[in-house]
Amino acid sequence: MKKNWWKESIVYQIYPRSFKDSNKDGIGDIPGIIEKLDYISSLGVDVIWVCPVYKSPNDDNGYDISDYRDIMNEFGTMTDFDKLLTEVHLRDMKLVMDLVPNHSSDEHFWFQESRKSKDNPYRDYYYWRPGYQGGPPNNWPSFFGGSVWQYDEITEEYYLHLFSKKQPDLNWENPKVRQEIYDIMRFWFDKGIDGFRMDVISLISKRIDFPDADINQFNEIITRYYANGPRVHEFLKEMHDRVLCEYDIMTVGEGPGIDLANGAEYVGESRGQLNMIFHFGHMFIDNGPGGKYDKIQWLLPDFKRVFNEWDELLKEDGWGSIFLGNHDFPRIVSRFGNDREYWKESAKLLATLLLSLRGTTYTYQGDEIGMTNVAHLSIEDYRDIETLNSWKEAEAAGRPMDDFLKIVHLNSRDNARTPMQWDDSTYGGFSLEQPWIKVNPNYNNINVASQEEDPDSILNYYRKMIRFRKSNPALVYGDYKCHLKEDPNLFVYERWDDQKHFLILLNFTDHEIEYQEEIKGRLELKINNYNTRNKSMWLRPWEAKIFEVINS
Ligand code: TEU
Ligand code: CA
Questions:
Q1: Does the ipTM exceed 0.90?
Q2: What is the pLDDT of residues 496-523, one digit of tens each?
Q3: How far apart (Å, rounded) are the C-alpha atoms in residues 187 and 110?
């Protein structure tokens, strides 16, 4: 396995709007991030990934970009950004930005031009199609509800938007569009940024014959019509050969529809495309046939299978990304742990998992202090366009709204977007003014300041686990073998290289369990998420142990 800095990196993801407000407008900003760089560096992370900070009308919080070479007003100025980059580098960390190449804002100059006339030079920057029998060109549904087609009166045609109608899809078939994106990438690389996380990269090539979907299961529609289109690898290879190959940077592509059948095609090293991808195998594990608003109980054997199969797929050629949540998903301790009786233990167990699997690991802001889901009593307190649109659709469909609110509590993307909880002052130390989205009321108990003081806190456990991973390359590059694959309670695996050998035991339940397999060699307890360490094979509720196996 070839070594690379980005394979060894621990990435910390920032959602700038919710991280730290420096100027009392209730919105997180770049100077706020700068204020907290010492904190981030104290975690031991190597790379910071910031969600989009470009000029944007914020229909989808920055994932709708109106100028790719400028900074969002609320977040600061280009001078602030340049300072951020310098300060990150001064602390020996790297900065990765979010690239949103699949769509722009409808307020982008390209789109403003494009809609003017059918012969405008920018017309083909987007997908414009005539209607069909008085309606949209086809029956495709949008990620954010409704049709993917929006009628525009000026030219009496429809444009494609897989996300909100303020996020028109860029036409990647047009070489000029591709060149524009490559120029933008170069603009940021030449400033010295260290890589891109690429938003919905799997969607840049789609079925442009636009056939009607003959199924209604949304995830199925994504894979069949929207994702992994016929030219996606041609485009990525071109992007790599024209731009990426010239810089020492990292890339991680995100995408619906990326799965075990096609994942290796994106990241195989010989293929010269991306370094890593985020797949959603475990992110959709609790979705029923009706999608994310149709919740089912997730099962540990399925969860383990996702990690096992991806590790197997990429172990020879490629590299994995290990993450349990981000700004689009519920809080990890609420979803995969027990945020009530075993909040602290289960948050630490998840940290143990994140930091002991093979692949580059990503921690989302707030997970390092065990931030939890929020349950606002009214839909009025939600902000996410996806949640709000689903709410309207559910109302229109006559669904019982009390029940729907409960699903919103479980699944809204706003769970991950409540302000970072810095201390127990009003608004959790995020801002001195009312934030754009309410702080989780548990900020009194869950915050950075109190955990700084507590040697047994989740925060200090993250630091310890990060140090442990960094001092043991076996946890980065070493082999991986899962035991008891079908066991519904325990996640057990070994990691080893020619220097060291580890056995990791994770109890994903509320009760005690004894691990009964025989292990050759002497076991030395290295990491334990309970402060009353116990080196027996008994695991307390949500207990995590890492043993070093000696003389095996
Ligand atoms: O998300 C892509 C994506 O697939 C999401 O729609 C995901 O399925 C959903 O959020 C799960 O609830 C990316 C960004 O991460 C997201 O924040 C953006 O809204 C989206 O792209 C559009 O740019
Ligand atoms: Ca601000």
A1: yes
A2: 999 999 999 999 999 999 999 999 999 9
A3: 18
Residues in the ligand 1 pocket, defined by CB under 6 Å: 60, 63, 100, 143, 163, 199-200, 256, 292, 327-328, 386, 413
What's the rounded Cα separation, in Å, for the pair 470 and 196? Answer: 23
Owner of token pair 């990690």: 307
Residue 196 · residue 6 · CB < 8 Å:
no
CB atoms within 10 A of CB 142: 19
For 537-546, the pLDDT digits (tens) are: 999 999 999 9
Which of these, 205, 211, 199, 216, lies nearest to 51 by C-alpha position? Answer: 199
Annotation marks residue 25 as catalytic: no
What token pair was written down for 200? 């919905």
Average pLDDT value for the chain: 97
Q: How is domain 477-550 classified at the architecture level of CATH?
A: Sandwich (2.60)
Fold classification of 109-160 is: Oligo-1,6-glucosidase; domain 2 (3.90.400)
β-pairing, 513-514 with 538-539? antiparallel
440 CB burial (10 A radius; 0-12, 13-18, 19+): buried
